[in-house]
Amino acid sequence: MSAETQQAETDKPRGLREGMPKILPKRINPVLIFILIFTLIVAWQWYDTRDQIAGLQLELAKRLAEANTSGKESRNLATEATEAGRRAETKLSLLEAKLAESQSQQLALEALYQELTRNRDEVTLEEVEQLLLIASQQLQLASNVKAALIAMQEADARLQRLDRPQLSPLRKILAKDMDLLKAAPYVDTVGISLRLDNLAAASETLPLAMELRPPETGSSLAQAPAVENAWLKFLHEAWEDIKRLVRIQRMDKPDVALLSPSQAYFLRENLKLRLLSARHALLARDGTSFKVDINTSLDWINRYYDSKSEAVVNMLEVLHQLQDSQIGIELPRISASLDAVRNYRLAHERGNR
Prior knowledge:
The chain is mainly α. It is rod-shaped, with a radius of gyration of 70 Å. The chain contains eleven helices and no strands.
């Protein structure tokens, strides 16, 4: 019975309830009860499942929103990374191009350096050869050992500045020739040549022996008394004139040659030529000709010139000093050094081709 029916039955008077006949309820079907319970359970599960699905949908929507946001950020980061990669690739390309350019410049600089080094070596070898030629000329033409030694030392200094190990044999040959020059006797060729030039220039003014005159004696008129009359004065003057007509002179060398003006001129010129010839023999290292010219000059000066003159005395003294000079010395040659430099230069040029 339902609750309303029960409530109505309760509300009826008791007598009526008692007088009415009793109606027994029907038996409840268990199947219906099971269906009802099952329905309630299914409804509850459906409701609970719907709530769970709604929660899951909310959670899924939230997760999807977060994933969408993360995806956008990832896409932005990917885009930025792509742009950064492109910029890095561009920079890398530029760096590779600059590296290739720098390598090309380095190769060009190395080639230029090698060319400059070769040119420097060639120029230095040419300078060394020229210095050795100058040294050889100084020895052969002027016999100037000092100048030749200076030129060879400068050539060795040029080779030393190159700092090449392969130049060591060449420097050894130079050192050997320099030692030979240092051991050679020293002859002051330049000094002797200058002294001969000065003697040749002074020979034009040397006084000849025939030009020597005795000192003038004092006139006796100056010693005559002031009170002497005119006739005596006239006689003294006449006597003085007569004495001047004849001159008596004492000569230490009775064989003094009397030369005419033309002969005196040629004598001076020949003496000058003899002195210049001695200078030429000095430069040619011809000791025999040098001594012949000096001895001839001494003989002419002693025979024809005034030996009491100071200029003549000085010239004789210088000539005697030069007479004792030893100029016929055989000087060493530096052909070994010159040939070594030339051969090395030719080999160096062939190696660079």
